[in-house]
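Repro:
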Amino acid sequence: MRAVILLLCALALSNCVTLIAIPPAIQYVSVAATVVSYVATGKGTSDHVISAVVDQDCALHRALLEDQICTENPVAAEVSEGEVMALLAE
């Protein structure tokens, strides 16, 4: 059921659903933003939205690789103030 909801969210966020309701100029900007996002992060704009909603690392292309679409976010390492100051001093 969760995969179906994620798929519906991706379709709703993509240009597939609203081909006529959105002007072509806005569609081009949306496609450009998605391409830039894929180049920069390896995930599309809808992947980032889904990741934020479910608070996990999600990428819909993982389903094609027969992998889990969403995985737990890696825990960020806490850095002390002294370590930050040492890095900035270098």
